[in-house]
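// run 5 | inverse folding | seed 20
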């Protein structure tokens, strides 16, 4: 069971590394990164070679703080309201006795562009509010890396060292004689 969890950890880590590469030749680069990473890890941990193909990945969302979720939800609804007002062409500034600003007049002359800008800009802000950046690595239900605490992803060398230390500690703990009374 322990080698299976290690295999899950390794595949999950490299899935994330591959998915975060923003290269235009994405699939080819992901395959090359995955193959290179697996070769490095399998060279460092030859005992897990036979377990690499029995992999189950479990992921879960790490929720942002409630205030960010509420702001993102409000922004989502506000975005739809603004797009609706742009399409209808009703001047919301007249309700407050104000002259419409230049960006509103431009938006009325370019409704499709204005709606797209509101949509994409709002989505960008919503995604930033909802993204925690969490990448937590556990081995046998023991946390071994936290991006939230460290602020960055582990390098390949750090990952190999972490896994090596954890496996040595597990072997040492499992080799201790158990005394039953």
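// decoded
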């Amino acid at each position: 069971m322990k080698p299976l969890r290690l295999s899950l950890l390794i595949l999950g880590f490299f899935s994330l590394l591959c998915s975060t590469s923003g290269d235009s030749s994405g699939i080819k680069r992901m395959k090359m990164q995955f193959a290179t990473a697996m070769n490095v890890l399998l060279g460092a941990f030859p005992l897990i070679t036979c377990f690499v193909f029995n992999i189950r990945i479990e992921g879960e969302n790490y929720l942002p703080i409630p205030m960010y979720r509420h702001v993102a939800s409000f922004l989502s609804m506000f975005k739809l309201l603004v797009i609706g007002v742009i399409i209808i062409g009703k001047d919301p500034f007249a309700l407050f006795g104000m002259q419409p600003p230049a960006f509103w007049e431009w938006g009325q002359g370019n409704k499709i562009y204005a709606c797209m800008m509101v949509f994409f800009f709002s989505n960008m802000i919503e995604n930033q509010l909802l993204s925690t950046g969490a990448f937590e690595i556990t081995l046998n239900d023991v946390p071994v890396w936290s991006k939230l605490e460290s602020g960055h992803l582990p390098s390949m060398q750090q990952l190999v060292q972490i896994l090596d230390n954890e496996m040595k500690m597990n072997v040492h703990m499992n080799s201790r004689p158990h005394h039953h009374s």
